[in-house]
Specification:
The chain is of the alpha/beta class and about 280 residues long. About 45% of the residues lie in helices and about 10% in strands.
Length: about 280
Amino acid sequence: MKAFLETLRPEDRDWELAQAIDPARLPEHIAIIMDGNGRWAERRRLPRVAGHKAGIGPVRSTVEACARLGVKALTLYAFSVENWKRPRHEVETLWRLLRYYLRQELPELQKNDIRLQAIGRLEALPEPVRAELDAAVEATANNRGLLVNLAINYGGRAEIVDAVNAVLEMARLEGSLAALRMDEDLIATNLYTAACPDPDLLIRTSGEMRISNFLLWQIAYAELYVTETLWPDFTRTDLLEAVVAYQKRERRYGGLRAGAADAPSDETLIPALGSS
């Protein structure tokens, strides 16, 4: 956090927000649904692809800010399994932008010790995209800083199906299919994100109140933060505001809030309500 503060000016809003953040309570894993590129372009009477191009800058600044804050993992929803339904020229533009991002950002990823990983049904990607993506993942494999997961051709339901099928296939190969019993741990260890903790904070831009088939298993207890800001307008300030809001919440994981253990239970309240 000290290194992060050194990049800010005391008169800036970001300085004020950073001072409010408790380094000991940072979210370990932040996931972001980067929504609003199309609407950003439409409001400016530009083609939708202009919004996708404008969205590269916020990816860069968000990765940089998370790395400097000390966040351990960042997962970005880049392309869903449903996005293939979009016009062909838009999909092809997205692939060109991904390749451009990988080429441009790889030196910075290396410089900042950031490890890149891709999650999703990657075998369906165009061969040149897959090759460039694999090369970037391999090049950063030994880095030990922030882990950046790019969710590409990703769907939460598809991930769970793939995890279950992986468990079944392993049991079949081992000859233990008849004795197989599924449990949460078994499925979790076969998810795409098995190498990192579940998200603590899920951010969605553009104001839409849905999770769009993103990390369905992993966000069971994530704190949700929705901002009206469209993704191309998302800044470091927006990220810091989300972290500050996250730290103001009390995470109970189904338990009681602090001090609630001393409150009267339902068993003591119900007789009292019936008495006169």
